[in-house]
Amino acid sequence: MRNIAFGYSTRCNVKCEHCVAADAVPENLRMELVQATEIIAEMAAAQIQGISFTAGEPLIYLDEITELVKLCHQKYGIYTRVVTNCFWSKTSALADSYIVQLKENGLSQLRMSYSRWHQKNIARRNIVNAAQSCEKNGLDYFISFVTDFSEQDDACEVYLREHGLKFFPEPVIFAGRAGSFDRQPIHTDYQANCCPMNPYLAPSLDMYACCDAGSHFTNTNFFHLGNLEDSTVEQLLQKSETNSLYNHIRTMGITAIASFTGYKAREIIQYRKCELCEKMFNSPDTLAMLELEAHSGLNSWYR
Fold first, then answer.
1. What pLDDT, on the 0 to 100 scale, is given for residue 22?
2. What's the pTM?
3. Hey, which of 50, 107, 120, 236 would disulfide with 102, CB 3.0 to 4.6 Å?
4. Which CATH superfamily is domain 2-184 in?
């Protein structure tokens, strides 16, 4: 099933210390609404079945995002999600006004960003207001609890549990403003670290094969697929789906690729998935070696 992250605008109303999307592109880059509707029509023709509106803070442009959600729902039957920091839900009444508008126009799910870094800028009560409004109005939601797995985050997690909210911990990605963060030791097993790699369309119309930190691989531009000024949505999706190294990431996983590359097992477990991916695929020498082996040696490096 084809899904994509859709960056309507890079504009955000806060500057979180950990933001992976920050500093890579101009702060106020934005699509035209007409252009966005045309792109969604092209995405529907390419059989995209899920669109997640993300990038900066989408709900700064509530009416425009609502129009795009409505288009996806009513004309194309596309599942939609909006990723938000919940700046808009300072009160229960304000939360209801946003949720009702989004729900009535066909939004499938709301994803709320929450962390000790977000909540320096956005009151954590906003998250509660938004979640409770979703529950009251029948809109599916979940909270993305971004963490570095340190004790500093215990209070944030307890707050969510005390309010009975649905949340899923997600590791901070050490890119963008978080690139200089201290890493916490990892205590886990030797995981495969496969990645579905949903593409990301930026407001600049550049498309990347990975919706997380792909645009930050500036040494190699490994995940850059192209620009919609020069290619169609279908062509760029095909490029993503037929790239041998991308498919190895999806199926054999980052860990096995790192082992094939020569990393020791004790080194591999020191890195989170996106970090390990960056170390390999943002290195011109390592990438050149893996590209040579993509159709030969890597094909036999399976259990």
1. 57
2. 0.93
3. 107
4. Aldolase class I (3.20.20.70)
| pLDDT value of position 25 | 55
pLDDT for 221 beyond 80:
yes
Domain ranges of the chain: 2-184, 245-300
Mean pLDDT of 243-254: 95
Q: What is the DSSP string of the chain?
A: -EEEEEEEE---S---TT-SSTTSS-TT-B--HHHHHHHHHHHHHTTEEEEEEEES-GGGGHHHHHHHHHHIIIII--EEEEEE--TT-SSHHHHHHHHHHHHHTT--EEEEEE-TTGGGTS-HHHHHHHHHHHHHHT-EEEEEEEE-SSGGGHHHHHHHHHTT--EEEEEPPSSGGGGGSPPPPP-------------EE-TTSEEES-SSSGGG-TTT-TTEEEETTTS-HHHHHHHHHH-HHHHHHHHT-HHHHHHHHT--HHHHTTS-HHHHHHHHHT-HHHHHHHHHHTTTGGGG---
Average pLDDT over the chain reads 92
